[in-house]
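Cont'd.
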Amino acid sequence: MAEVTELLGRVATATLSAQLHRRGYRDTSIEGVTTNVPGARLVGVARTLRLVPYRPDLFERHGGGYNAQKRAFDSLRPGDVLVIDARGERRAGTLGDVLAARAAYLGAAGIVTDGCVRDATAVAAVGIPTFSAAPHPALIGRRHVPWAVDETIACGGAAVQPGDLIVGDDDGVLVIPPHLAEEVARAALAQELEERFISEMVTRGEQIDGLYPMNPAWRERYDAWRRELSDLEEL
Amino acid sequence: MAEVTELLGRVATATLSAQLHRRGYRDTSIEGVTTNVPGARLVGVARTLRLVPYRPDLFERHGGGYNAQKRAFDSLRPGDVLVIDARGERRAGTLGDVLAARAAYLGAAGIVTDGCVRDATAVAAVGIPTFSAAPHPALIGRRHVPWAVDETIACGGAAVQPGDLIVGDDDGVLVIPPHLAEEVARAALAQELEERFISEMVTRGEQIDGLYPMNPAWRERYDAWRRELSDLEEL
Amino acid sequence: MAEVTELLGRVATATLSAQLHRRGYRDTSIEGVTTNVPGARLVGVARTLRLVPYRPDLFERHGGGYNAQKRAFDSLRPGDVLVIDARGERRAGTLGDVLAARAAYLGAAGIVTDGCVRDATAVAAVGIPTFSAAPHPALIGRRHVPWAVDETIACGGAAVQPGDLIVGDDDGVLVIPPHLAEEVARAALAQELEERFISEMVTRGEQIDGLYPMNPAWRERYDAWRRELSDLEEL
Amino acid sequence: MAEVTELLGRVATATLSAQLHRRGYRDTSIEGVTTNVPGARLVGVARTLRLVPYRPDLFERHGGGYNAQKRAFDSLRPGDVLVIDARGERRAGTLGDVLAARAAYLGAAGIVTDGCVRDATAVAAVGIPTFSAAPHPALIGRRHVPWAVDETIACGGAAVQPGDLIVGDDDGVLVIPPHLAEEVARAALAQELEERFISEMVTRGEQIDGLYPMNPAWRERYDAWRRELSDLEEL
Amino acid sequence: MAEVTELLGRVATATLSAQLHRRGYRDTSIEGVTTNVPGARLVGVARTLRLVPYRPDLFERHGGGYNAQKRAFDSLRPGDVLVIDARGERRAGTLGDVLAARAAYLGAAGIVTDGCVRDATAVAAVGIPTFSAAPHPALIGRRHVPWAVDETIACGGAAVQPGDLIVGDDDGVLVIPPHLAEEVARAALAQELEERFISEMVTRGEQIDGLYPMNPAWRERYDAWRRELSDLEEL
Amino acid sequence: MAEVTELLGRVATATLSAQLHRRGYRDTSIEGVTTNVPGARLVGVARTLRLVPYRPDLFERHGGGYNAQKRAFDSLRPGDVLVIDARGERRAGTLGDVLAARAAYLGAAGIVTDGCVRDATAVAAVGIPTFSAAPHPALIGRRHVPWAVDETIACGGAAVQPGDLIVGDDDGVLVIPPHLAEEVARAALAQELEERFISEMVTRGEQIDGLYPMNPAWRERYDAWRRELSDLEEL
């Protein structure tokens, strides 16, 4: 797993999304979440927390004390990404700086919520990559009852299971089923090398026609360029 | 339970909502669903089905054959209301006429989904009260994977547990925790009697001031009216 | 005023909207409201009620007893249309059958709210034309505090002042400033006569080109048709 | 084509949607439009009209007189369905009763717009099946400039080309590419026969498990039932 | 008042929101507004401006010259926060740099609008904290008529009265009724001290269970830590 | 044209929007797009690309290889701004860094899309001003088929024609018809000079009343100030 996450960490979500798309995975992006730290990169293994809508009786029994939200954070392991199903609710927080600090201490790789983050400035200061719908000052109890840990959930319109690979950058966040992760990562690396070549050609003034996608002639030049490159670099 | 549902069946959701509100239950309406048969009344005991977003690998393993959706319908008992968590998704159906017919055969009291209904005309013909976000021709597999039966779910912004009381009419659908159901039903019946009196007074031309809510003078007249009435009617 | 409302009652909102548009009034429709009784026609003089968002201290002082909402209904006069500014809030009612019955008793011409109606079936039974965003079972206090009567308000994206003319049908609801009402009504009647002629021609198979809008040749035929008609009918 | 439309007219959009889905056509429903006459069935061949946002200079040159909207209606042929790209704009009409009457006179099969209909009551009286986002009194010029006829357009999130088959019922509206139409129609007829059998079994009390979808045992019983049926009926 | 605003200025909106929530104030956040200067802190006393939708006759009489918007800005006093009710309209500005400069000159503490800001870059340069829905180049007259000063208004879903305390940071903006301000501020300071302790423990590796919220054992350690701290610091 | 773009480049969109508004152009802003580089200024001449919704058959014929999207980018000339009609779709990219680099190489002035940008970080690094609805990792093919170059399109609710002037800054993006461009630019420069004077007066403590808008007395002082200024500066 460590090697796969290392590979995934070297490619953009845009490239991974293209590779998933080719394999029929068209709806594996978590929509509508943004990072609290521009330029942040997120890679890790999904853990999940499911919230349900606020209701007095359920909150009384499940909302306070050592609830599912707090159990989820205490249970994080190095490399985990906690993904929170908040039904896209933009009128309440789902975590704050204390829990973010706990996740960071435990070596978690990041946090993704389709709800909001409280005390967003303090959470950003903790330094753990956190993707959310927006900041919001309200307690989780304004709209939610923390419910279940490590179920299959919905987050930002994507299904997420514990064990899925989660990758995020400024473009957004992707969910990658584990059985596809390595294949997709390697294919993405190859694609990025091609795009690096194409970008170089474009900046030299080559036109898109024939180059992007590459026709046989360009493909040949690319192969030569690639051989050259591999003499110079580790690929 | 039978007695409670009988009581609940005699009051409007507007009145029940007021009684729940007084007890701190402000967010127990399932938002954005409407009945397929104007005038329909729905009363029963919640059973639940949770859907998660479509994903090829999950759908392959859980979407086809005798999936959670079909198991849920086969498991319905007389008086049950199947409540489906479809994340408010308006671009796919969550049931069609075959499953509605199965629910009707088993004596279920109704169906509520915050997603859509396929073959809405045929479903209406089945005659079981069905509340949904809209009709839509697409298969459940366009956006969903049927996932779990009888979990606590979110539907239309409300938390729903198996065993909750579900009541619906043209105003919408309410979720009533079982421990409150009888108390709320009886209080609602009393409130409706008051409102029946107030309506009679209003149609006679009495002004709202002092009457609605009732001041002591009106309260006295109400008590007299009520005693009279109880001689004439069963209450 | 009575004559103006009588004139307005004889034309469709679609025609009135066209006449208002020509006079630079492009945003005088109350968006997103529908009638509770298909085919209902609404014509009357605006009275207004402004609600503000729920807050415990404000509700305690202004929400209960003989509040602004109830004072507004008690103050209605024959021909009034009560227009309610509910900020388009779809998660709470703004009136129920008791207040609708009071409005009907006082001879009000109708009710328009960009919020919801409680006990929609009972309100429809009262028979007073009521346009709203949707039905909803919740009390006004779930989201609102009744605030002020007869201020200039916003309703469904339109500004409304007491004294404006309100006209509604299945297409929606329009707000007509009083100084334009008669002029717009008469121009709309003339336009409808033209469109009646055009429709007759179209149903006889005439093509749109030249007819709609009318070129001089058609205009001549129209004038003849109109003269004929005026011998037969009262215009 | 006549035969294909006849076949398509015998199946529900829900069934056609399923057949399109199996062939990889997951996004060919026109979202968010409803019929003005419950129970209406729409089948025909697409013609298109594209509107662009209102702008004074463009409207002056292209909005008045015999504009693209009117040319489109005059050009309709028997069996055509005019599909209007109004960008889902809900604050202006895109046609009224005069143009609907013209379409009806010319034998058009129906009208679909992701914008609104003016004078909705009069349009319904014309009797031509019309699917729209909502009724609205405003002129097309409030938000639109009629632009182009018979281009490939977007309507309710689906791409539509002249010549596509358009099918609509209470579930919504589908766009079917011509090369798939007959295959999809025949497969849908076969599917509906199966579902008719399954429904009969369900109403007799058979459980879903094994029946829907059919296992080999049920498949055998189905084939027998079908043979019987074909002796009795024309299929 | 000065002391209260000083206290409020020392706590995060997340903490204040929690204290308001405990006192039954769950809906006092102004939703959907963000600061034009990340990290900005806003604290002051509410003044209000209510806008109504654009209409030619109303704009002619109330939109130009020394209108309500300009009177509101000229009337600001040191420490005031001008809160503008723009109905969440995202297609027009509600103020620009000239008025922002006037507010700054008069010593106002900030501006909050649920509409947009024109010339956002210039407004940010003025340096007065400004929270809005978004920047937008259009004049207020595109959608609004400036209407009334210092009424009770709705802003971002919250009710706001002149005299309320307004506090904002990166999490959003809160409205605090004056009678609660000091109590809530002091309770928030106490809560933040606890959370400072809890955060220190978490960064040392303590688990959430038992610590957050604190059990008696932790509470004891906290009291000791606090006594120590008070010897070192001013609290 | 070069001179006009130079003039437009010296004024804020807020000022240009005001001048367009006075001339009846109230809906020429491209709504809901933001720049990827705060502070970026965009000025150029519109070229257009229209996308239609994804459909397998259309994508197979028009989506791959040297499609309309790529032809559009290859055809850009110095000073062009490519405006993309993506129907406001937020779930797919419409361009990435390779095409942005091509546009930059060809001297294009910028890119505007009401859809999303892939690889937003790399696109920002290219340095060409790009305004979009949001970043998104998905390929254009998730939701679109590249369709047509240099048609009249809709973008963010505005009509755009090749040859229109496009101006953008932090407030948003405006579309200016060519016949109005110079007149609007010069009027905007004059307005900005007035506002510069007004701002100076405001920062000196002058009140808004009488100054903004200027009464005759202030107008006189302004003329004097302006004469002075013109001795010092080039205007």
